[in-house]
Amino acid sequence: MDHNKKEECCPAFNPDPWQGKEHHWQDKLFIMETMPQFFHIPFPSKIGKMMDRQWKKIEDANAEPEMADFLWLSYDPSPWKAEHYIAVTKEVPNAENVKISGNFISKVFDGPYNAAPKWIKEMDNYLEEKGKKSKKYYFYYTTCPKCAKKHGHNYVVLFAQI
Length: 162
Prior knowledge:
A hairpin with a 2-residue loop joins β3 and β4. This protein has a single domain (about 15-160), classed as Regulatory factor, effector binding domain (Multidrug-efflux Transporter 1 Regulator Bmrr, Chain A). By secondary structure, the protein is α+β, with helices and mostly antiparallel strands. It has a six-stranded antiparallel beta barrel. The chain starts with 20 loop residues before the first strand and ends with a strand. About 25% of the residues lie in helices and about 40% in strands. The model is unreliable at about 1-5 (pLDDT under 50). It is built from three helices and seven strands; from the N terminus they run ββαβββαβαβ.
């Protein structure tokens, strides 16, 4: 998944299976890597390198999910640090293997990344209408910026752990 060499590295995203859906994960397997960021803004060159490095580990371990099951989740525990989780089908050597369990609701948004605070507010309102409250948010950035431009959408799936 070399983001710099392929004309299109991200397939077109179908938001329908993710919009307003509930997900129940029990020990869902990911590999995780932390990265520095500045006020929740990642350093673009570091993200591409991290994805390429992690994807190579995943391929070497034959742990790639089907594209329909591909997930790259991001969580910001602080304005200075992000955690990136990539779904895998089995444990990956030389990677931080992490299992996530819980109940989640996903909602799809389309727009610039800096709209994330607005999306969280919309999700909070959506959850409140359902009598639920989020404990934690994960963002699934469905395409890289180059492919988002090519496809004409910058879909982001917000997962609320409830």
